[in-house]
Write a structure and sequence with these properties.
globular, transmembrane helix, transmembrane, 81% helix, mainly alpha, membrane
């Protein structure tokens, strides 16, 4: 969830912060973002082409813990989690960045979210039936 939260917040932050810092129009801010998007496209296509049976790692780990009847419900719950993280991240990036929070507080919130995620990951990793080694 933290990855989608941070991704959503930076996606909505870049046009706002560049408009403030460099006096960009929304169109110019989009042109600022576009080369980075184009540069990552070959990596995305290669990843999809050369991966064998791509699946979501969290879905794979959760499906081993629950009965088969809950597999589809867990998949829907994971997707809702991802969407909620993207939306709340976009709200944080759009409202809080340069307008009200300031960049230091903005980055502190994101580091806090990553810290909580890392703590939960370290705490619960042993209980998940994950393949190791």
């Amino acid at each position: 969830m933290s990855c989608f939260f941070i991704l959503g917040s930076w996606e909505s932050d870049i046009p706002i912060s560049k408009a403030t810092a460099f006096n960009y129009t929304p169109y110019a801010a989009g042109n600022f973002i576009a080369p980075g998007e184009i540069a990552t496209l070959p990596f995305l296509l290669a990843s999809v082409r050369y991966s064998y049976g791509p699946h979501h790692p969290r879905k794979g780990l959760f499906s081993k813990q629950l009965p088969n009847a809950w597999n589809s419900r867990m998949s829907v719950a994971i997707q809702y989690d991802n969407y909620c993280a993207r939306v709340t991240g976009a709200i944080l990036g759009g409202v809080g960045t340069w307008v009200q929070m300031g960049m230091k507080s903005y980055i502190a919130v994101q580091i806090g979210v990553v810290g909580v995620g890392a703590l939960l990951h370290l705490t619960f990793w042993k209980q998940l039936k994950a393949k190791t080694g």
